[in-house]
Design brief:
- The structure is a single chain.
- The longest helix has 13 residues.
- The protein is about 20% helix and about 45% strand.
- It has a single domain, classed as Nucleoside Triphosphate Pyrophosphohydrolase.
- Strands 1, 2, 3, 4, 5, 6, 7 and 8 form an eight-stranded mixed beta sheet that branches.
- The termini are far apart.
- It is built from two helices and eight strands; from the N terminus they run ββββαββββα.
- By secondary structure, the chain is an alpha+beta fold.
Length: about 140
């Protein structure tokens, strides 16, 4: 098992957050902010800018590091991920989209603006993201 380093970007539109919708191998749907792998020699903030450009076709700016989450899982295959969670801003016209096509290699996903309080958003990844975002909202309030 290798340690994976990832960067994810929380993009907000009012009370909504852009979340990718991916099939959970255990059933249901996993919701997560867009992002991906940090490549060897790449800084995490550079990775998130590259990933959003490659996968969503959008430039992100005003990046702020919200926190770092670590996830160690024993399910098959086992994993160990360290994820840098950023918040960023995208061009104004991007906020008008109701959904975004996310192209990751040969796989295509949809990302939509979702409320974190939406009862259909049952599995938010990475683990600890909701607490991180709720803590940020309390600190800003």
């Amino acid at each position: 098992m290798q340690i994976q380093v990832k960067a994810r970007c929380v993009i907000r539109s009012g009370d909504l957050v852009l979340l990718e919708e991916r099939a959970d191998p255990r059933g249901g749907v996993i919701y997560r902010p867009p992002g991906g792998n940090v490549e060897l020699g790449e800084r995490s903030q550079d990775a998130i800018q590259r990933e959003l450009q490659e996968e969503c076709g959008v430039e992100v700016s005003d990046l702020r590091l919200l926190g770092v989450l670590e996830d160690i899982g024993s399910e098959q295959p086992p994993h160990h991920r360290i994820q840098f969670i950023y918040e960023g801003v995208v061009p104004q016209d991007f906020y008008q989209l109701t959904s975004v096509t996310v192209q990751e290699g040969d796989e295509v996903y949809t990302a939509r603006w979702r409320s974190l309080e939406d009862e259909t958003v049952t599995r938010l990844a990475p683990a600890g993201l909701l607490s991180l975002l709720q803590g940020r909202e309390r600190a800003a309030g």
